[in-house]
Design goal:
Elements: E1 4-9, H1 14-26, E2 30-32, E3 46-54, E4 57-58, H2 62-67, E5 75-82, H3 88-98, H4 102-105, E6 108-113, E7 115-116, H5 123-137, H6 146-157, E8 159-160, H7 168-174
Parallel strand pairs: 1-2, 1-3, 3-5, 5-6
Antiparallel strand pairs: 3-4, 7-8
The protein binds flavin mononucleotide (FMN).
């Protein structure tokens, strides 16, 4: 029987939530990037990696990037969890930023909308979010899109867009 593992990097819990949902459905181990070492890849045929998105980067994805040469012959699937990953433009940017090497381009990436609680955002993260909202607010009024307005509202008020239904296409790949 094929062995599958879900590896995740989550800062505030929503990526971990998706990882655990996937683990339950596939009855497989779910491991944080800190608990997973390179040699563990040898134990599995299928690797599902999920990371939260910060400023366009999939956090923890280096684990896959740096070891992609050793993952040949294995099925590797990625999911990215972010507030605005359902937007086409964001997805294109995500692919450009994270899947830059030739070997990475063939990987499938799924997208799961995340959660955001302004009360939990501190320090550098808070400065980064401020930069992002300033960028949107600095646009000419005619250039501000409905998606921009929604994102500003979610960042200001908080939002939880997580839903188990978003793991369905990932589960379908392995069942
Ligand atoms: C500093 C910071 C930067 C973020 N940048 C993005 C982004 O570029 N794109 C996006 O879709 N979501 C972005 N988000 C939202 C998070 O990805 C989202 O809240 C996600 O659910 C967090 O996952 P976690 O709960 O597993 O940490 C950002 C959040 C923070 C705190």
């Amino acid at each position: 029987m094929e062995k599958t593992v879900v590896i995740y990097k989550s800062k505030h819990g929503s990526t971990e939530k998706y990882a655990r949902w996937i683990g339950e459905e596939l009855s497989c181990p779910v491991v944080g990037t800190k608990e997973f070492s390179r040699k563990d890849f040898a134990l599995y045929d299928n690797i599902i990696f999920g990371g939260c998105v910060h400023a366009g980067g999939i956090m923890g994805f280096d684990l896959i990037k740096k070891n992609i040469r050793h993952l040949e012959g294995k099925k590797v699937v990625v999911f990215a969890v972010g507030l605005n990953v359902m937007q086409k433009e964001t997805r294109m940017q995500l692919r450009e930023i994270n899947f830059d090497k030739k070997r990475l381009q063939s990987l499938t990436c799924y997208y799961c909308p995340g959660a955001y609680d302004p009360a939990k955002i501190k320090g550098l993260d808070s400065a980064l979010m401020k930069m992002m909202t300033n960028m949107i607010e600095g646009k000419k009024p005619s250039e501000i899109t409905d998606e921009d307005r929604l994102l500003l509202k979610q960042v200001e008020e908080g939002a939880d867009l997580t839903d188990k239904k978003y793991i369905e296409p990932i589960i379908a790949e392995f069942k």
